[in-house]
Amino acid sequence: MTAGGTVEAAAAAARRGSLVVFPTDTVYGIGTRPDDPAATARLFAAKRRARELTLPVLVATIDDARRVAVFDGRASRVATAFWPGALTLVLARTGVSRRWELGGDGATIGVRVPDHPVARTLLERAGPLAATSANRSGEPPGRDHDELVAMFGAEVAVYVSTDVPLGGAASTVIELTGPEPKILRGGDVDPELVIGLATTS
Hints:
The chain is of the alpha/beta class. The protein has helices at 7-15, 37-47, 62-68, 73-82, 117-126, 145-152, 191-198; strands spanning 2-4, 20-22, 29-32, 57-58, 87-92, 108-112, 129-133, 158-162, 172-175, 182-185. It has a single domain (2-198), classed as Alpha-Beta Complex (DHBP synthase). 31% of the residues lie in helices and 20% in strands.
């Protein structure tokens, strides 16, 4: 059960390029469509996030992830083992995502399938979303509807919030573009488990 806006309203707003806030399996996320430069610019501005930092992309399924990121055997093994879940894979972009203005160097994309029914339903209806934790850069994520509205106000078109505050850890981030897996951020998923699976032949 959700409070505030509906998933249908959030999906429609995201497809228009507006910002939406929604629950994930880690913390609340703030997102929008990734293929609209004006939309991702709004997300960077709301977050007060430097353009040198890349916006990750959330998707509903592994098949959706394959459309926007290049999967080799190890990425497929890791995704099958840990998705849906709190693991972000940084992979090379496909032709579909190559021109998306997500910040960073433009060569890679961080992608994740979240393990939360509201987030997954939203992604099924809206398509992939450029999404990051719902907070101003350098501040803790908002834990409930009131904190989120106080933080972003009218910058966000639709807030989808749960009845229970969220305060989980961020996702583990692993890069699989080089010969060796590289942990970029520790999180809910044990990095050593990911590295072990990624290095299995």
